Amino acid sequence: MDREKLQRAIILLSGGLDSATLLALVHSRGHDCHALSFNYGQRHKGELAAASRVARAIGVVEHVVIDIDLGQFGNSALTADIDVPKHETVEDIGEGIPVTYVPARNTVFLSLGLAFAESRGARHIFIGVNALDYSGYPDCRPEFIEAFQRVANLGTKAATESGQQISIEAPLVDMTKADIIAMGSGLGVDYSLTTSCYDPIGEYACGRCDACLLRQKGFQENGLEDPIRYKKTGDIPTSTD
Amino acid sequence: MDREKLQRAIILLSGGLDSATLLALVHSRGHDCHALSFNYGQRHKGELAAASRVARAIGVVEHVVIDIDLGQFGNSALTADIDVPKHETVEDIGEGIPVTYVPARNTVFLSLGLAFAESRGARHIFIGVNALDYSGYPDCRPEFIEAFQRVANLGTKAATESGQQISIEAPLVDMTKADIIAMGSGLGVDYSLTTSCYDPIGEYACGRCDACLLRQKGFQENGLEDPIRYKKTGDIPTSTD
After folding, report:
1. Is the residue at A126 inside a domain?
2. Is residue B239 part of a domain?
3. Is residue B80 included in any domain, yes or no?
4. A40 is in which domain, residue-wise?
5. Worst-scoring range by mean pLDDT, A61-70, A90-99, A104-113, A204-213?
């Protein structure tokens, strides 16, 4: 196995703070980073521009954006005409899996990451899932990642013919949002380039969806100011809703 | 669980003879069939027209075609500018995984099938993989299907929150091509609607790729004539290669 291929890594990059931190971490370990983003019919398509900014700022070998219209299937507040739930504080976020869940999204993303990894001869796929400060999605849990690892081992030519397993790595899975922001700040991540909001109003984050609330809590716990702009801070001249 | 949803099934439909037989089988069991096909950058795009013909002939509730350009990743004779291997007889097909392998294809297809199933409230996904008369692809083996079942159990809201597991079923996996054709003939499948060739010349199958050779062997073993047209039978007025 040549060293170059060992070093090649696929990073699933959404443009949010978790995946930006992940990219900075993987980059700091000396990997050649191949970033993969998805134009999947999400209402917060602005995250793709954020992903490009982050990829450029941190440094990648390539940044591939795949079109896969999960909106064709519907049934999620992120891809269909269903309201994104809003709350006043993070404590108000309900139990259970919310309507922002996109059916089988991380299975789809990892499967395309696997195709990309095998095509590039990469031996690592990094995904920024997190099972502590998260929205309760089943496909963010460590047991899901382990199950997908087995699929990768059995379903690829690389692993079955050449013994070159592709490892699925989720280094943020057990970290709190505050831990992630602390680590990323240490790595020099510019969080002003990122976006987390499920339901942005133009350039502004809504400040009240689960993603905004969890993000804000993470910055607060670090005693840091979140550098992005929120609608509820009153810095929007005119409101559209 | 209402009976209607129990009956709903997703069928991955390529337009080849295996998936046509699969659809006929699932339909004969009384399922409401939701067919899913993929426009993935394959050179044999004519299979999508075949999939439509088959879906119409057998009867489906809906037939969804998803665009997912696996050609963006390259690295396969089916999606990139790499020659499809040709042989004179089925015995000449080599050992090992051929260059027609598309990285992680069935993982991608099953993941999208899973998203579709969850969106539709379907409890079954049928895939026409076959591990006897096949091209040696790792993602056609029973152990791969079992591994993906675990991903489906852990990675969906349906299974984790409501206990509604989505079963991944591959009823053709241990059948020979001859067995599949015999069963399909009994179910009334019109194989003239299907296509198997990896490298067709217009309306004609090449007759020499792995898929053509395995198909022809299956018909011969049943003492049946394959109703599609092959280039090597000499029934093409002008050749382009």
Report:
1. yes
2. no
3. yes
4. 3-232
5. A90-99
- Please provide the distance, in angstroms rounded to a whole number, between the alpha carbons at the two ends of chain A: 56
**Per-residue DSSP letters for B81-144?**
S-PPP--SSGGGPPSS--TTPPTTHHHHHHHHHHHHHHHHT--EEE----SSSS---GGGSHHH
Q: Which residue of B has its CA nearest to A104?
A: B115
pLDDT on residue B6:
65
Which site among A8, A107, A123, A153 would you substitute to test the B interface, given the most B Cβ atoms closer than 10 Å to its Cβ?
A107
| Number of compact structural domains in chain B | 1
Position A113: which residue type?
Answer: G
The residue behind tokens 């539709």 is B120
**Taking all residues of chain A, what is their mean pLDDT, rounded to a whole number?**
90
Does residue B241 lie within any of the structural domains?
no
- Cβ contact, residue pair B68, A72, below 8 Å: no
Write the CATH number for A154. Answer: 3.40.50.620
Q: Which portions of chain B are predicted below pLDDT 70?
A: 1-6, 232-241
pLDDT at residue B17 in the model: 96
Residues of chain B with C-beta less than 8 angstroms from the C-beta of A111: 104, 107-108, 110-111
Instruction: Check B73 against A115: CB less than 8 A apart.
Output: yes
Interface predicted TM-score of the whole assembly (ipTM), two decimals: 0.91
